[in-house]
Amino acid sequence: MTLLAILVGTILAGVGSVWLAALLSFAMLARYTQHMLSLAAGALMATAFMHLLPEAFESQASAHELFSMLLAGLVFFFLLDKAELWHHGHEHHQEAAPGHGHGHAHHSHTGVAAHAGGHHHDGPRSGGWAVLAGDSVHAFGDGILIASAFMADMKLGVVAAFAVLAHEVPHHMGDLVVLRHTSGSSRAALVKVSLAGTVTAIGGMVGYFLLSTLDQFLPFFLVAASSSFVYVALADLIPQLQKRLSLRETAAQVAWLLTGIGLVTVVSQFAHAH
Cβ atoms within 10 A of the Cβ of 15, count? Predict the structure, then answer.
């Protein structure tokens, strides 16, 4: 009975939060693409700095170990970014090799696209992988948290599942915006983030059987997830927002960034309070 409750609670929290976020974010994407990028950057940074890292540092793990994990995570996602760029560039090189004319045309096309969009397509593509990796680690940790709550008390488990769902919605709005921007498809973004959300159920099942063993590693899961969100926000999203804009456009950009931070902060505090 407890295991069934954990499965239902983790699926509701992990996947339900993604679909609720999709209803909110995709309705705004068509008209407010640049604003949603600002919102995504704020949501990702706030999730890391206002939710995950404070929770990790409340544990018994030493600050030195947690900061070392954060640094290792940032370096890992930098290398992941480089590997994806190299792989993608290698594919383009192979496509262009059979005919010089095709290669020249493709180069011109990507150059114009990069100039018009202010950001080369390869950059955000890599950021999408980092978001999915961080989401999966974060979801696994959420599953362990929900499992521990259900094993302590059934009512506490229900509250924990809804708390996770609530604080994941604004964060997943940011994820969906990033992946929509990298893949160019709302459906692909929704499928990818939903699959990452199902890792919550895996975390719940693993937590049910190995909770006493995994409990000490939970802070490191939280820090690893934080490193991916910080990297994507600072290395991919923020550079795209650093354009010469009018005062009014700049004010709107900052307002949406602060909105993303505010949403995650308020919802996280509400979830923790309950």
Answer: 20
Alpha-carbon distance of 109 to 103, in angstroms, equals 10
Query: Tens of pLDDT along 171-213?
Result: 788 788 788 877 777 888 888 889 989 999 998 998 888 876 7
Largest Cα separation within the chain, whole Å, is 67
Tokens of 98: 């059979």
User: Hey, CA dihedral for 31, 138, 190, 156, is it positive or negative?
Assistant: negative
Contact 129, 183 (CB under 8 A): no
CA 256 to CA 42: how far, in whole Å? 8
Q: What residue spans define the domains of the chain?
A: 2-97+111-273
**pTM recorded for the entire structure:** 0.63
User: What is the rounded distance in angstroms from the CA atom of residue 270 to the CA atom of residue 166?
Assistant: 9
For 193, the token pair is 């983030």
